[in-house]
Design goal:
Strand content of chain A: 15-25%
Number of domains of chain A: 2
CATH architecture of the largest domain in chain A: 3-Layer(aba) Sandwich
Shape of chain A: globular
Oligomer: heterodimer
Order of helices and strands of chain B: EEHEHHEHEHEEHH
Largest sheet of chain A: 7 strands, mixed
CATH class of the largest domain in chain A: Alpha Beta
Helix content of chain B: 25-40%
Distance between the termini of chain B: 33 Å
Strand order of the largest sheet of chain B: 2-1-7-6-5-3-4
Structural class of chain B: alpha/beta
Radius of gyration of chain B: 16 Å
Structural class of chain A: alpha/beta
Largest interface: A-B, 33 and 31 residues
CATH topology of the largest domain in chain A: Rossmann fold
Strand content of chain B: 5-15%
Strand order of the largest sheet of chain A: 4-3-5-6-8-7-14
Distance between the termini of chain A: 74 Å
Helix content of chain A: 25-40%
Number of strands of chain B: 7
Number of strands of chain A: 16
């Protein structure tokens, strides 16, 4: 068994130095690089001391999955293969994680939905797998374009769910995500989501940590459950599940088990705040109007705020970084002065607005919108228009092109 | 800070996880008592006091210390045995210290033998059967320990202590973290030092474990 502290400063087979994560992320020099989000995923995984990556093609994550195959060819990843389907991939990830490996995978849209049965299983089995979700449309008719509806389905799986705005978030959070996820009091899978294409396929300047530094390896001996043991839960639990026994003890145990998963999500709060510097970022929260958003809707909200400032309307911004754990107190505090709370989203149901309505007092302040979906872009002008309409100000319609 | 306190039960048909009630784990060098962060020094005193006050103070060693899977585990097991022997030396007539292992985590059907083991899926059976009114978990994987601690809090009045090798347990009434041989030995020393200064609860038929 390896002692993580004794490994710091030693080199892996690629000559990378196992580095204290805090130093690597906060003190090591950064190199500005012009990369797509997919390339950034590759560069983060190069530094993540990953044991296993399992891939399956589905747009828009296919490029990242293929690029990580290159990392395998270069010797940065212990094992890499293509599963038979997304369901198979997530099951194979579970197997690798049960065996004590640090596991990485990527998926998107219908792939997320196809694999869904595995996610509560991962959480219940306390497997700290990291899954990148490059969100896209999930419903028929087919759309491969950005749409964040799948996140709504992930929120109640017991996984940690973070929503990256930029490629820089992606790079940093992939690495930090493993550290939070693998804490013994947390030890849960992480769904690290982004808005497909907007983040994965556009280039941005990203400040990278040195390529010769990498995370300390995963230590499965700190796991809150025994790693692979066919006679013990959680493995045995799945072939001899409590639900098969119709008695009070079975039900009570299963209930206590479920509570423990959500207790672990709660415990991740402290670590997430430490590593992400808070569950939310805020600007001008003393304003009467506050935009609360996650993912690239934050960027559009920021631009809308700039445009409104030109017209003398002052707005605040809350960037929600972590969806699980949910920043309940942070959002209450950040919106306590707001008379209007706008929640722009890239999905049809407005799941983030529903969460916020359930969180803040006087929830009639929450305007669920604007919404776009199915791959539509969200020009900042429509956020401006939504806000001005609510304030009774004159605005224009972007939709009107006819007579 | 949360108003919730982690207290001996029976608390509820389905008691909440303490973490979901706002109870946080201690940072390194700290412990918690009833969900309130405190110094380790205070926790040693309180754990020893609870042991000496109980009619059936019991240690539940789990797989991580029951098997000599590395040198550290073997040394911890020796320290746990020392703590148990110290308890036996320090209690008064009428008190009955026990050492009951949690050898594995398999649900035991059709029925566990509560005389010889405790199981995380139905720990209340062992607590009730032996009328255990104070217990300490050590060497139990964290997930299984939390599972047990909640069920014990839900259905029994047993005072629970966790000597955790990782980050500690909010679902115990008292929890240490980063358990080591030295910490176990220090708890044994504290028990020895407090010998004769704590009035035992010898009426556990009514005040001890509920049934």
């Amino acid at each position: 068994m390896a002692d993580t502290h004794s490994i710091i400063g030693t080199k892996n087979k690629k000559g990378q130095t196992y580095t204290d994560t805090w130093k690597m992320m906060n003190e090591a020099p950064r190199t500005p690089s012009f990369y797509t989000g997919s390339e950034v995923i590759k560069e983060a995984i190069r530094r993540a001391s990953c044991d296993v990556m399992i891939a399956y093609p589905i747009t828009p994550q296919s490029e990242a999955a293929a690029l990580i195959g290159e990392l395998f060819a270069e010797g940065y990843i212990g094992d890499y293969f293509r599963g038979e389907s997304e369901f198979a991939v997530m099951s194979q990830c579970a197997g690798a994680s049960f065996g004590g490996a640090r596991v990485f995978t990527t998926t998107a849209g219908p792939g997320t939905m196809r694999a869904m049965e595995n996610f509560p299983m991962w959480a219940g089995a306390r497997l700290p797998i990291q899954m990148i979700v490059t969100c896209r449309g999930i419903n028929s008719p087919l759309s491969i374009q950005p749409d964040t509806l799948e996140i709504a389905y992930l929120l109640n799986t017991g996984m940690l769910v973070w929503h990256a705005e930029t490629a820089q978030d992606f790079f940093d959070w992939i690495l930090k995500g493993y550290i939070v996820s693998e804490e013994p009091d947390v030890h849960l899978p992480l769904a690290l989501c982004c808005d497909g294409f907007f983040v994965t396929h556009t280039k941005d300047v990203v400040n990278l940590t040195p390529a010769d530094m990498c995370l300390p390896p995963y230590d499965p001996y700190r796991s809150p459950v025994p790693c692979m043991d066919m006679e013990c839960p959680p493995v045995r639990m799945m072939r001899d599940p409590f639900v098969m026994k119709s008695n009070y003890i079975s039900y009570a145990t299963h209930a206590s088990w479920q509570q423990e998963i959500w207790a672990a999500v709660e415990r991740s709060r402290k670590h997430t705040i430490h590593w992400l510097n808070g569950l939310v970022d805020t600007e001008n929260t003393d304003a009467d109007i506050v935009i609360v958003a996650s993912g690239t809707a934050v960027s559009q909200g920021r631009e809308a705020i700039r445009m409104l400032e030109d017209e003398g309307v002052r707005c605040g911004l809350v960037k929600v970084k972590a969806l699980r754990p949910w920043p309940e107190e942070e959002i209450r505090q950040a919106t306590k002065n707001a008379k209007h709370i706008f929640v722009p989203e890239f999905n049809v149901t407005g799941w983030l607005a529903k969460e916020i309505r359930a969180t803040v007092p006087n929830s009639q302040r929450v305007h669920a919108g604007p919404h776009v979906c199915g791959g539509m872009t969200m020009p900042p002008e429509i956020i401006v228009s939504e806000i001005k309409t609510a304030l009774g100000m004159k605005t224009f319609s972007m939709a009107g092109r006819g007579s | 800070m949360s108003d919730y306190r982690v207290l001996p039960g029976p608390e509820h048909f389905l008691p909440p996880a303490a973490a979901s009630m706002g109870i946080s784990l201690p940072n390194p060098g700290e412990a918690h008592i009833n969900g309130v962060i405190t110094s380790e020094d205070k926790a040693y005193e309180e754990a020893a006091r609870q042991f000496l006050m109980a009619k059936v103070p019991t240690i539940f060693p789990g797989p991580l210390v029951l098997w000599a899977w590395n040198e550290k585990a073997a040394k911890k097991a020796t320290a746990v045995r020392h703590l148990f022997n110290t308890l036996k030396e320090c209690v008064q007539p009428g008190q009955k210290p026990m050492l009951i292992p949690m050898p594995d985590y398999r649900p035991k059907y059709p029925k566990i033998n509560p005389e010889v083991e405790i199981n995380p899926n139905h720990p209340n059976l062992t607590i009730w059967h032996n009328k255990i009114d104070c217990c300490m978990f050590i060497g139990v994987h964290c997930h299984q320990a939390n599972l047990s601690l909640k069920i014990i809090r839900g259905g029994t009045s047993c005072y629970t202590i966790a000597m955790c090798a990782q980050a500690g347990h909010e679902d115990a009434m008292l929890s240490f973290r980063d358990a080591s041989v030295e910490k176990i030995m220090r708890l044994a020393d504290t028990v020895k030092r407090l010998k004769g200064t704590v009035q035992p609860r010898l009426t556990s038929a009514k005040n001890g474990a509920s049934s």
